[in-house]
Amino acid sequence: MLFYKDLLFSFICILLLIICVLVGVA
Question: Which residues cross the membrane (predicted)?
Fold first, then answer.
């Protein structure tokens, strides 16, 4: 359960980072 939660948190952080990069480029 803890591993899954940590994995989900990492996925969200990466997704937000990608969105920030796309917004910066656009």
Answer: 7-25
Please give the Cα distance from 26 to 8 (Å, whole number): 27
What domain count does the chain have? 1
9 token code pair: 């948190």
| Domain limits for position 21 | 1-25
pTM exceeding the 0.70 threshold for the entire prediction: no
